[in-house]
Design goal:
Elements (H helix, E strand, L loop, with lengths): L1 H18 L7 H14 L1 E5 L10 E2 L2 E2 L7 H4 L4 H10 L7 H10 L4 E7 L26 H12 L2 E7 L24 H20 L3 E5 L8 H14 L4 E2 L40 E4 L17 H13 L3 E6 L9 H17 L6 E2 L5 E2 L2 E6 L4 E6 L6 E4 L2 E3 L5 E3 L8 E3 L5 E4 L10 E9 L2
Parallel strand pairs: 1-4, 1-9, 4-5, 5-6, 6-7, 8-9
Antiparallel strand pairs: 2-3, 10-12, 11-12, 12-13, 13-19, 14-18, 15-19, 16-19, 17-18
Helix pairs in contact: 5-6, 5-10, 9-10
The site of 4-nitrophenyl 6-deoxy-alpha-L-galactopyranoside has 10 residues, from loops.
Length: 448
């Protein structure tokens, strides 16, 4: 009898846990869970997989568009695509070096493609052989090595994961990938015996801080399934953060939610920055050239200046910046990316206080100046994105008694006067501590 009761308790406990509804947590609970992510502001996106082998080229021809879509865009049959897997042997991959590059750039987290649309898994998955250990010659668990390197460096490890899967017969929504099997595709079977078990593996083996879903636009996927998956994963790891592509709420490239209570913790604008601030958490993901995955013909790199200005713009609007790199088939991040990240890091070393753990303010912009506010509310940061000649005039800041104005990276306080309208006239230093943008740290608060 006692044994029966114990069992009953265990079963009901398990049941109660499985039932826990994380979709209705309080604002306070969400704030606590999201705190590190909100403070981090800057992360690295990594798109990597067998598509790095063709690198945008199929049968000697350049395939239009992003390189990680080559299987689809180039209409490459599954068995032919699998030959890239057999060649995927990135012997120069060095997880510590990648993490160092991200950390030196000022990034606080890394989001890597655990599985992209092509269906190939970058870890040793027990659910499939279509992974880096069983099917590729490399035989090293990429996610494990990166997780360990992140843990060591104090970086947060996060995984991108595609719901759409061009390799799983049960997941296919596209006729051209129809497998030679006679059994009809069964999406529910894919979801319950493949997608969810793989995600459970990821959570239990690598303890990711964020799961970043994608490929949710396929017709088989519903908001209800998204909500179910959201709760399933939060039950496995209660403080997990999950993007809004887990459900169907995302409004196109702009990425914010179409309706209230959509599943997911943050909006995902893609290749664009929100027009202004938002009440919802958000993260802009962007490429440095025009492709997410490595593409050998794509040399259309954004300048370091633009990337830094994007980071400032996003921080001032209260978002996060997830900036992508696409390592090549040897396992190296392109030199052009490394160079830009190095320049961003140099800038961040001096100006980071204006970026991390800051809040946005309603009037975050004044001409070429963007504002952020320290979390304790004691300082306003005015980040100036164009060189100033002579003096800088600011209209949006209220001073306190004894206020001082410093430029980050400059020792002495700057001379300034407040005129009768309450505008600040600030003497611009002759020698500047960095390139591209300069931060004034002002004891005070935003007027608006
Ligand atoms: C998706 C992926 O297809 C792409 O390969 C990459 O991983 C990127 C980060 O995410 O791309 C999208 C997703 C959504 C839209 C466009 C491209 N959209 O809503 O228009």
């Amino acid at each position: 009898m006692r044994l029966f009761f114990t069992l009953l308790c265990l079963v009901s406990l398990g049941f109660a846990q499985a039932q826990k509804d994380y979709l209705n947590e309080s604002v306070q609970q969400k704030s606590e869970r999201m705190e590190w992510w909100r403070d981090a502001t800057f992360g690295m996106f990594i798109h990597w997989g067998p598509y790095a082998v063709p690198a945008g080229e199929y049968k000697g021809k350049d395939v239009n568009g992003v390189a990680e879509w080559i299987m689809h865009t180039g209409n490459i049959p599954i068995n032919e695509y699998e030959t890239y897997v057999k060649q995927f042997n990135p012997t120069q991959f060095n997880a510590k070096e990648w993490v160092r590059i991200a950390k030196d750039a000022g990034m606080k987290y890394i989001v890597i493609t655990s599985k992209h649309h092509d269906g190939f898994s970058l870890w040793d998955s027990k659910v499939t052989n279509y992974d880096i250990i069983d099917d590729a010659p490399f035989k090293r668990d990429i996610l494990k090595e990166l997780s360990d390197a992140c843990n060591e460096a104090g970086m947060q490890m996060c995984f991108y994961h595609s719901i759409m899967d061009w390799h799983q017969p049960d997941a296919e929504s596209k006729k051209e990938y129809t497998h030679q099997n006679t059994v009809a595709p069964d999406f529910a079977r894919y979801r319950e015996t493949y997608l969810k078990p793989q995600l459970k593996e990821l959570v239990e083996k690598y303890d990711p801080a964020v799961l970043w879903f994608d490929g949710e636009w396929i017709p088989e996927w519903t908001e209800e399934q998204g909500r179910d998956l959201y709760n399933y994963l939060r039950n496995l790891k209660p403080n997990l953060i999950i993007n809004n592509r887990v459900g169907k709420g995302r409004a196109g490239m702009q990425g914010m939610n179409l309706y209230k209570n959509a599943a997911g913790d943050f909006g995902t604008p893609e290749q664009e920055i929100l027009e202004g601030t938002s009440d919802t958490d958000w993260e802009s993901c962007m490429t440095m050239n025009d492709s997410w995955g490595f593409k050998k013909t794509d040399h259309n790199w954004k300048s370091s200046e633009l990337l830094i200005h994007n980071l400032i713009d996003i921080a001032a609007k209260g978002g996060n910046y997830l900036l992508n790199v696409g390592p090549n088939a040897q396992g190296l991040i392109p030199v052009a990316s490394v160079e830009r990240l190095r320049e961003m890091g140099e800038w961040m070393k001096i100006n980071q206080d204006a970026i991390y753990a800051t809040n946005s303010t309603k009037k975050y912009k004044e001409g070429d100046v963007k504002y952020t506010v320290s979390k304790d509310g004691n300082f306003v940061y005015a980040i100036v994105t164009k060189p100033v000649v002579g003096e800088l005039v600011l209209h949006n800041v209220d001073l306190k008694r004894g206020s001082k104005i410093y430029m980050l990276g400059v020792n002495d306080p700057l001379k300034f006067k407040a005129d009768s309208n309450g505008s600040l006239h600030i003497e611009w230093p002759k020698e500047l501590p960095c390139k591209y943008a300069w931060t004034l740290k002002i004891t005070g608060s935003p007027k608006f």
